[in-house]
Every structure is written in C-alpha cells, then in structure tokens.
Amino acid sequence: MPREFSRSQRMAEQLRRELADIVRDEIKDPRLGFVSFTEVRMSRDLSHAVIYCSIFYVEQNSSGRDSDQQDNSKQQNESIEILNRAVGFIRKEIAKRIRARIVPTLKFALDDSVIRGAVMDDLISEAIKSDNRSDSNNDISSPASNDSNTGSDNESK
Hints:
- The protein is α+β, with helices and mostly antiparallel strands.
- Helix content is 61%, strand content 15%.
- It has a three-stranded mixed beta sheet, with helices on both faces.
- A hairpin with a 5-residue loop joins β1 and β2 (48-56).
- α1 (7-25) crosses α3 (87-97).
C-alpha cells in the first residue's frame, strides 16, 4: 500500500514539531519574539532544511504606524539572526530527539505571508468602509433629490 506522504514531508513535519519544542523550552534569549514555524522544506536527501518562521512582537508604544513596522522588521530580522546563530545547538537537540541517520543542516528564513495577509485584510476592510460611507452618502442625497423632483412634479400637475 503506498504511503500518503513522502519521507521528506514526514521528516519536515517531525522537524517542525521538534523545533517548536526546542525554541519554546530551550532557547532563552529575551530578544527572540514569539516564533511560529510555518513551513519546513526539506531536500530530497534530507540533508538540508529551510525553516520559514513568522515572528510576532507585542507593540509597547502606539506611535506612528510606519515606524512600528520598521521596528518590527528590525526585530524580526534580529530574531532570524538569533535562530541562525543557534543552529549548532538546535541541531544537537534535534539529534537527541529524533532517530535519523542524518540531521539536516538548518537555515531559518522569515515568512512574511502572515504579515502580507494582515495588510491585505486591512486594505479590504478600509475599502469596504469607504464603500459603505459612499453608499450612505448617496442614500442621504438621493431621497432629498427625489423629494425635490416629486415636489416639482406635484406642482406642475
């Protein structure tokens, strides 16, 4: 009976779960934000893995939005650097936890799809609000203009 998932897919999922446990329990760097591993891509020979991460920070100040996004971007890049510097430790921990002949070399990359999705959601919400405002403005002006037209029709009759 054929398997539903390839070996590299099964290994990638196991690696993602172990990475989440290791980063949550073992890495105690306060500069590291809330890390979520969104995807792990393995090479066919299981020797290399690229791990895509989403990193979130709690906003401490509510100043300008652009500066917050720049600060967030800097913090996210710093978190990726922290993870890439800790690759040796993380690989050692993975070797202890999983049974594999080869522990893959790891490379962490920022997955900004969640952020891009949130920006798109904000844009869609703004468009809906502006449409609702323009519809409500048209509704307010339409009855007044209709009343004046019907009033003039009544006078002519």
